[in-house]
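Problem: given the chain below (197 residues), write out its structure.
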Amino acid sequence: MSHSLSFLRTDKAIMHAFIELLKEKSFEKITVQDILERTPVTRATFYAHYHDKYEIAERMLEQFLKNRDNIRNELNAESSSKMHQIVRKNASIHHDATLALLKIRTDKVDLRQTIVDEFEKEYLSEKSDPVEAKIYAQVRTSFELSCITREIPNLSFQYSNETFMNVFLKLLRLSDDKETKDFLNKKLKQKFPNENH
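Solution.
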């Protein structure tokens, strides 16, 4: 269904007010009246757009995931070397919405869990170990959300690889093992010769 420019502007204003309110108070304490006080819309207009604050949150999550998929498709993210570009672009576009979404946990809206589920499914499409899939999904989700919420300015292929490598080596109790680190860096250079290492 296509909407008029005016309808879309109002929709955006309501969502913006909601995001701003989430900077100040918890999702549970936000009311429709709070949103109305922040936007130049009447109660009837609000209800023409949304049933309640839960629907706003659901639509925000929907938009976040759609935009994230569009970015992944745009970057042709079949290669893990593109992951840093996805995260960086997502961070710049979705920073405020992501912070807002991370404050909401309902039956239908849980950004962190949604991303975890996505990465877990991705892993299980290639390998069958559910424990590995859970660990992989948690690590990828934590990295992506940390990069978005902290607005890391120099996010690069090298930064993401260093981060994962350091965590991996720490988990294996090899964090001081220069030989292993050098070996892994060499393998990365062979696999992704066009990336800055």
